[in-house]
Amino acid sequence: MRFKRNFLLLLVLAGFFTRSFSQKIDLNETSSGVDFLIDNQRVLTYQTKKEPVPAGVKEAFSKSGFIHPITSPSGQVLSRIQPSDHYHHYGIWGPWTRATISGREVDFWNLGDEKGRVDFSHVLSKKIAGGAAELNVRQHHIDLKAPESERLAIEEDLRIKVKPADKGRYLVDYTTTIYTKIPGGILLDDYRYGGGIGFRATELWGDDNSTILTSEGHDRKTADGSNAKWIIVKGKSGDKSGQSGILFLSHNTNKAHPEPLRVWPVGQYNGKGNVFIEFCPIRHESWEIQPNNRYTLKYRMIVFDGDLSAQEAEAYWRAFVK
């Protein structure tokens, strides 16, 4: 069994490295964000400009600092922003929800409450090397109710790295490092949402045309609150195969690994456009952030058309952590 697993891992790595150097990788900075391109096709955008809100929606819901769109290799859009049921949902992003700072309760997630928010600050670096494109940015977690000296609660360095993978797929490394200068530190309170990496899927996916599978064998009905090394989210698409998806991987050095999940249950919002998943390291236990210490969470996404099996997911995870 071990030989079989190792052989599969070698096949994944061999295919990954062979293909990654045969495709053109590029970055394109625009007035609203930074596009990642493979063979001149945009595969994802990190948004640096605040996204305008629909007419009649509170301006506080406008934000920057998120990934959207993220597309499958054939160009199918897999993410969604500002859905009418949750205007604060933004494609792929990871703000903390409940936090305690100097005795105040701060919420960086629910923008409409106007207690806190997370936005893009500035680009730290960009590079193309080794068949990959990499973007490093600074994001600011703002405590809107704090005195000026504590208004900047958390500084976050986010690294996004894109590289082609085997079978026409591509990978995205999403590495977030947070730190605070507030003398008393910050307590990230345990809650079912917050931090890590969250994904609001395309409005085309719902109960009837999408599936979820975790490393521990859980599906959409049982995954919420469980722990996982990886989770596959896939659904119907316009690709010729009829299906596209994303495999999310959690690194084994992450807080609370294997990480707790927040997965919206079957039936949420009438079963349409209702796919949301998140690796949530503070779901079951609070996390104390000490001043001037750096805390890192590492994730990887494998974006695909067609299918991706549990065996392949396990091999990708082993390659990621090794």
Automatic annotation (TrEMBL):
<keyword id="KW-0503">Monooxygenase</keyword>
<dbReference type="InterPro" id="IPR029475">
    <property type="entry name" value="DUF6807"/>
</dbReference>
<dbReference type="Pfam" id="PF14100">
    <property type="entry name" value="DUF6807"/>
</dbReference>
<feature type="signal peptide">
    <location>
        <begin position="1"/>
        <end position="24"/>
    </location>
</feature>
<protein>
    <submittedName>
        <fullName>Methane monooxygenase PmoA-like</fullName>
    </submittedName>
</protein>
<keyword id="KW-0560">Oxidoreductase</keyword>
<keyword id="KW-0732">Signal</keyword>
<dbReference type="GO" id="GO:0004497">
    <property type="term" value="F:monooxygenase activity"/>
</dbReference>
